Amino acid sequence: MIRRKTQVPDAGTATEQTNTEQPVQPRRRSTGRVILSTALIVLFALVAAGVLCACLLYRTTLPSLTVELGDVTPEASAFLRGEGAAEYVTTPEHEYPIGNYVLEIKVNGRSRLVLLRVRDTIPPAAEGVETTISTKASPKPDRLLKNITDETVVKLTFEVAPKYGTVGDYTAIVRMEDTSGNDTRIPVRVHVRIARDSISREAGDPAPDAEEFLIDRYTVDACSEITEEMMHTPGVYPIQITAEGVTAESRLIVTDTVPPQADPVVQIVEPDTDLLPEDFVSGVRDETEVSISYITEPDPESRVTQTIQVELEDLGGNTTVVETQLLITNIAPVQVEARTSELQPSECLEEGSYEEASFDRPFIPNVPGTHMLGIVVDGVENLAIVEVKDSVAPLLRVRKTVWFLNAPKEASFFAVAEDITATALRFETEPDWTIESQEVTIVAADAGGNETAETFTLKLNPDVAAPTIYGARNRYSYANEAVAYMTDISAEDECDGEVEVKVDTSKVDPTKTGTYPVTYTATDRAGNVAKKTVKFTFVDASVSEEEAERVAQEIIAKVLKPGMTLDEQVEALYNYVFKNVHYVGSSNKKDWRSEAVRGLTTGKGDCFTSYACLRLLLEHTGAELMSVERSGGRTHHYWMLVNLGSGWYHVDACNTGKAKKRCFMWTNAQKNKVSKSFWRFDESLYPPIATEPYKKKGK
Fold first, then answer.
1. What is the rounded distance in angstroms from the CA atom of residue 606 to the CA atom of residue 610?
2. For residues 44 and 42, what is the distance between their CA atoms, to the nearest angstrom?
3. pLDDT at residue 22 greater than cutoff 50
4. What is the pLDDT of residues 514-551, one digit of tens each?
5. Longest C-alpha distance within the chain, in Å?
6. Cα 569 to Cα 212: distance, rounded to the nearest angstrom
7. What predicted TM-score, i.e. pTM, was given to this entire model?
8. Which domains does the chain have, with CATH numbers?
9. Using one digit for the tens of pLDDT, what is the confidence trace for 223-256?
């Protein structure tokens, strides 16, 4: 049997062949030499045959492909002469260096050897870089090329070199040769100079120094004068410069790329007034001369506000369009001080110049600026120009001088300002909120730019007071239903404002009837803690949530109309309960839901029933609600606190006793005026009641 040993075919490399060892037959001494000679001849023949077979295999069984250096190794099927599928037995390299490589592929389940030849036949490539250098420089070839590409190392040499050191324009030729012998020649223009061909400056820039024209560090002997007029006039100016005894020519290019700027001017003139384009702009700004022309010209017959456009063009050809307004009117502009009373037509017209005049709309001059008003004078429509000025400084009053350490507040928290126009408050210097006592100045500025300052001593104290918890009281709830522990519950802190309230219900079993303790806790930023423990009594529900919801929706569908505001919804539902639930003197005060259904379906019940009815209905609106029980007295009384966005007010839908006075959105002062005892309540349990009488909001 013959075993082949394959090597990479290459120059000077042949395929070797070895024979398997053959059994040695016994031979006679007398014929030994003959046998040895015969064996040698056979061995030589076999070796020759092996070489011949290897050559034949190389030509017939090793399909080959030639790829360019840098290309990825082709798919195995690329070695097949026709269509078909093949795969590598062993994953080849992604790409190979120059050389010949025997690879093994599998075709139809059988392995075959293939030959991959990797060659480099592509010459290197590059781009020439036109270069300007000084007579002192002599750059190497790589300075004249960019984007050099090749798969091998590239050698650069000058085939034709520039005449370094001598002023002139030359075409250098750079020869590029890679390690495979591929070469390329790149022509490059090289300019040898003392001075740059030109430099550019924007109009209005300072004049360049003479050294800026030079390419290298030469000593300047003389240079053309560059005037201020040249630097403000776009153009190309020849510059002659002498350095180290050599005179060179250059150019100064002054450009203007920045368009001119100007401020629009509103013109209000009498008829027959001649207006030029420049009358509609002011503060023209540009480094070169600017011409102004109309884009939209005035219409001398128009008596309404006209939009006028003028174009500004500088010497660089840059343009800017300015848009402004023109009013041609017989009514002269007037100036008034800001106020809260309406402007009268007589203030814009000369006395005795008209019989009848009126504005097209009421106008209160409380906003500084120029305002245009339509005015009809003796039946003719005109425009009146009113300039509102605010020359009176605001009144400033400090209302709070004591606060808490480490609790920053806005200036408006400590002072109030009064003025006809809008006013803003600020600290002249932000206080140090860590200092207990300091002088602080607050400044009030109105819309007219007038200011008033007030200085006071601000005292900051440690926060040692705990928050106040509101709404925590004994309650009834329904067993085996969701429990609203946080209904009506809130906490306020004098320093922090509203504070989060946490509830501990660990001792409550809401699945069993009975009375359980519930604890509310509120902690402010200073670590002060407030706690309140109340009792929740769980009872069995006699009316389901679904039944109560059905009854409520029937009433709401009849009472509320589309488009009603929140204020209107609450008042409409209040009126329904007040008119339709009549006092009978008894109720089940442990089951508010059943009382609500009873009152809404039978029209009977006591104060608790009226409270329950209104509560059930109002819970379907966006109003904030809190339940209130009378404090002290021989009997109980129930009503609600309601907040519609402007504060908490008393609401009592009971239509007997003092409640016949229709207690709807009352302040403490209003209820106390009717009766101090009927609506007496523990104010510590509830947030502060609004002090301003309620005003219903519009749509």
1. 6
2. 5
3. no
4. 999 999 999 999 999 999 999 999 999 999 999 999 99
5. 166
6. 81
7. 0.50
8. 2-22+32-119 (no CATH), 125-193 (2.60.40.10), 199-255 (no CATH), 261-328 (2.60.40.10), 334-389 (no CATH), 395-461 (2.60.40.10), 468-539 (2.60.40.10), 545-685 (3.10.620)
9. 999 999 999 999 999 999 999 999 999 999 999 9
